[in-house]
Amino acid sequence: MSHDLNLILIADGQADGQWQSSNDGLTQLANAMADLYTVDFTAGNVTLTAAQFRSAMTFIPSNLSATRTLTIPAVKRALFIVDNTDAADTINVTKGSTTIAVGPSQIAFLNTDGTTNSLGGAVLEKGAITADPYDFGMSFGDTPLTDAVLGRVRIGRAITIPANMTGASGGVAVNPTAAFDIDVLDDGASIGTISVSTAGTVTFTTASGTSKSVAAGSEIRFDAPTVVDATVEGGSFVILATVN
Predict the structure, then answer these.
(1) How many other C-beta atoms lie within 10 A of the C-beta of residue 132?
(2) Please, are residues 216 and 158 in contact by the beta-carbon 8 Å criterion?
């Protein structure tokens, strides 16, 4: 029986050493599925042998001081990973005439069917996974009435509003002559304030200065203050949240 990892197998009729053969084969399989292989680029470009290529799942560089080529052998691999941990230089993974560049701090998930020029896959930027954005807001035109509801937004997904509504923005067309504070409520409970100063500066705060979780289906309401300034007009505000 032949296979791409060239595992040690127990031969027909084998008795002596069969446990050792089994253990060696399992070790090879474990390495191919999970081990790391450090590719030393001190001397320049590197060509992996078939044994080296089969011996690990992930290949990482050492002594990478310039762009180097990593040539892989004619061995089929449904998946192997090149994790370029270097912050400055590129690894060009090559199979025949096909080359895939793995830039500084990038990671490549690659495959080859073992034929001359077969090499494919995807190269990704490493980093933290960011949550999907969920932005919403409200606006008003003329000077609002006392205790008026300035806007309502039905939230379609579970979201988190960051502490003090970081990233939020807004403004008014006509500045108030006294501070104008808009109460932000989640299903009737106050979770923050949007304050507009007489100079038109907008400040966003959340209750206790902490982030706020909002359940899917909740209503965010924006209420005018109990005493409304008679001059403020044309307000618009956007709050940046993320999907949980």
Answers:
(1) 10
(2) yes
Per-residue model confidence (pLDDT) at position 19:
47
pTM beyond 0.90: no
**Domains of the chain as residue ranges with CATH:** 35-125 (2.60.120), 133-243 (2.60.120)
Q: What is the pLDDT of residues 66-92, one digit of tens each?
A: 999 999 998 888 889 999 999 899 999
What is the C-alpha end-to-end distance of the chain, expressed in Å? 50
- Report the length, in residues, of the chain: 244
**pLDDT: which is higher, 239 or 9:** 239
